[in-house]
Design a protein that fits this description.
The protein is built from 16 helices and 15 strands. By secondary structure, the chain is of the alpha/beta class. The protein is elongated and about 90 Å long.
Length: about 400
């Protein structure tokens, strides 16, 4: 950032202004140069708590003494401090750039130190830092140059784990901005809890269902076998129980904000679930989702038979659903995002352009491109460079008051 190329003969001047910010400072600074033979090559400006840092690289023809004097005079008039550095060349953009997004609840200084130390150890430079959110989590984005994003991701993963924060590393460029389809798991991702367990509680077989789930987690049953076994225990449950469960389903904090914001930006949104279509279809209608896929329970004479209709949507089926949604939306897989928490989501997460492990099992966190371990689903927005201020401004423009999310316990 704002660094000159030593091989170019072009004389340049870096002017850095600091002081108390107020309206009109930038206009006054550049207006002071008037008709001088000066070209503006780069400008960066940051304000924090009313304090300004403005840096400009200028192509100065001839002696830069008069330009320095002119800018020193205007700085003094405005109550600013200015420093000058001479150099040569148009500031060159580094070839390898990455965005590093840090999430903390809270974000402590040792965590920032650990992350930035690893960035420096990787031979990379932090060019720019900006805040994306201050509550209910703190999200800071670092623009980093000079390191391969994949290598940097590996470097920062251990530091993030030790520091108790989430870190996402993504290559800069158009591909980060171009993602246009988000597909989410449902149970324990879009919603809190597991639908099959909610149904099991109404059928009086929660303990038995939990045992089958534990066997599957130990690898004794695959997903299809475990799902059939659990659904079999629901035989005889009245159909009305599905509506009761649907009424009791609680969305994960931030789910509506995430979907609402993505839809404003033109994203297509979908859900895939190893659960049941009677629940997911209702969720899709409620949230205005574009796609939904799940398993179908067989119902005869108003009661669950304990069987499923059609093929089971398992781990491979979720990835296939992602591909199908992407094809229907006309979006390449490189521009998709998959969010999930369990092993059943691994293929989907691997197939997507960006795989996000949301409060996930360790095996999923290790496989995903990034992990979010705060209890707010809209934190996914920060991975896309969308700030909470932008979300709230858009809500306000639409007359929607963004509710304050619950603070983490």
């Amino acid at each position: 950032m704002l660094a000159d190329s030593p091989t170019s003969p072009m004389p340049t001047l870096l002017a850095t202004f600091t002081g108390t910010d107020r309206p009109g400072l930038t206009a006054r600074i550049f207006g002071a140069l008037g008709e001088r033979p000066v070209d503006v090559l780069d400008i960066e400006q940051v304000t924090a708590r009313g304090k300004l840092v403005l840096a400009a690289v200028l192509d100065v023809t001839g002696d830069d003494g008069s330009v320095r004097a002119q800018l020193s005079d205007v700085a003094a008039t405005l109550g600013l401090t200015v420093e000058f550095n001479s150099g040569h060349g148009d500031p060159a953009e580094p070839v390898e750039r990455a965005h590093v997004t840090v999430l903390g609840a809270p974000l402590r200084p040792p965590a920032v130190a650990a992350i930035t130390q690893r960035v420096a150890a990787a031979g990379a430079n932090i060019d720019r830092i900006m805040r994306l959110a201050s509550y209910p989590v703190t999200s800071i984005e670092f623009e980093v140059s000079g390191a391969d994003p994949q290598e940097l991701k590996a470097e920062l993963a251990a530091a993030a784990l030790d520091a108790g924060v989430d870190v996402a590393v993504q290559p800069s460029g158009l591909i980060r901005r171009a993602k246009r389809l988000v597909v989410m798991d449902v149970d324990s991702t879009l919603i809190q809890g597991e639908v099959v367990e909610m149904l099991a509680a109404r059928a009086g077989v929660l303990e038995e269902v939990a045992k089958v789930t534990e066997a599957a987690m130990r690898g004794e049953l695959d997903f299809g076998e475990s799902l059939r076994a659990r659904v079999g225990l629901l035989a005889g449950l009245p159909e009305s129980a599905l509506e009761d469960v649907r009424a009791d389903v609680q969305l994960t904090a931030g789910a509506r904000t995430l979907v609402r914001t993505l839809k404003r930006l033109g994203y297509r949104c979908g859900i895939v679930s190893g659960g049941f279509s009677r629940i997911t279809d209702a969720l899709a209608a409620d949230l205005g989702l574009d796609f939904a896929a799940a398993n179908t329970l067989e119902i005869v004479d108003g009661r669950l038979t304990g069987r499923l209709v059609g093929p089971i949507l398992d781990r491979a089926g979720k990835a296939e659903a992602l591909r199908h949604f992407a094809a229907e939306a006309g979006v390449p897989l490189s521009q998709t995002i998959a969010v999930g928490d369990g092993a059943n989501d691994l293929d989907m997460i691997a197939a997507a352009g960006l795989g996000v492990a949301f409060n996930a099992k360790p095996v999923v966190r290790d496989a995903a491109d990034t992990a979010v371990n705060v209890p707010y689903l809209d934190a996914v927005l920060y991975l896309l460079g969308i700030s909470r201020a932008d979300v709230e401004a858009a809500d306000a423009a639409d007359g929607y008051v963004t509710p304050s999310p619950p603070l983490p316990r």
